[in-house]
Amino acid sequence: MSGVAHDFSEREPLLTSAPAFASSSRVSHSSIPTRQPLHSAFGADFDEEKSASGQDSSSNQSSSLADEVGQATSLYDKKCLLVNHEIDAMGMGRYQWYLWSLCGCGYLVDLMWAQAFGLVLSPMQQELGFGADQTGTLSTAFSVGLTAGALIWGVLVDVIGRRWAFNLTVLISSVFGLCIGAPSSFNAILVLTALTGIGVGGNIPIDTTITLEFTPASKRYLLPLLSVFQPLGVVICSIMAYGFIPTYSCSPNFSEGDLALPSCNAVRSGEACCTKESNMGWRYLLFTLGAVTLFVFFLRYVIFDFQESPKFLLYRGKDEDAVKVLHNVAKFNGRACALTLEKLEALERDFDANSEEPVLAAGPNRLSNTWMEKVKLEGGRFKLLFSDAQMTRLTILVWLTYICDYSGFTVAGKSSRDLGRNEPY
After folding, report:
1. What are the tens digits of pLDDT across the range 59-98?
2. Is pTM beyond 0.85 here?
3. 142 near 193, Cβ under 8 Å?
4. Closest CA to 319 of 293, 291, 292, 348
5. 53 near 338, Cβ under 8 Å?
6. Under 8 Å CB-to-CB from 45, ≥6 apart: which residues?
7. Is the per-residue pLDDT at 25 higher than 50?
8. How far apart are CA 299 and CA 210, in angstroms?
9. Residue 200, C-beta contacts closer than 8 angstroms, at least 6 positions apart
10. CB-based contacts of 219: which residues, under 8 Å, 6+ apart?
């Protein structure tokens, strides 16, 4: 390890200026010298730098990378290939393992809340006295929040960046989740439940995106393995509910049928009824889930120094920041990074010579695009989902997979609730 650290410290500064030429975004095409072929521009560089960092890299591997970059159709794809190459070269280090675990916590929190609303419905109904025809409104409110959250965060993650979205989703979930147990009005609870769903709804799509962008290709099986946190969340929530609800519910409770204490909203003053003070179990459960979610936010925002996604930074034209992130991750892992700003600028020059239209990942040029040009570029990205029959089929299948996945947990939660009605605690 000391040898690797010593080698890393002797490398040139992170973003040294290139004496040969400047970025194409800052000079005219007429001033650019004759371009080298992609293979000669990148192949030798990768061989030299990988050898200097103590990593074995053959000319065949460099040639393969140059071929892949040459075959990519967009500038953004070309730059992403270089980023992927560096992430693959770094391997699965400490940074990636920490990030994978924190993304798994997002999956865990998602299903903890989904399970909770099925478990708290019966004691909540006994206390508040809403009719059987209103029992579905709680899960509906949460589902509306999840849908809105998935749509909102799915767009915002490409606007404000992965870093803010990664932290804000759990913060919003924790704040509104902690508040659900405070009111005694069912309508207020429904509003807070929907707002909690907005935060929870962004967890899985954002965590999946972040995991995919930082994980080496050889470890991509870790992406579907994030799903192991979902049943874990269900189990943890069920254990907590078993500890709180039977102990801190009205007696006789909802599981005893006609013998259960009625709601105070359904009887005259002075008659025995299920009061808030004697029915705190479901509130304790939601308070605990809110605290767990807040702890996840603390881990993500305070303990772990999450680096913005290099691919997002490339997409926004911040090539220099993207290179810095890769070097920071490599340093955290005790390894070296061979990607430099000059290599990204070389790709940019080569692409600019053949394109007069605004393009994604065009470095500083991307920052100078007009508002309408940026909207067109955004719309073009979404069209890729339905660009041909194969992409359309894959897009629809992925959507259906997520729909069926959540539906299964919803049915399980309803079954748990119905079982609780028939089994006395």
Report:
1. 555 556 666 666 666 788 888 899 999 999 999 999 999 9
2. no
3. yes
4. 348
5. yes
6. 338, 343
7. no
8. 16
9. 109, 110, 113, 114, 145, 146, 149, 169, 173
10. 92, 96
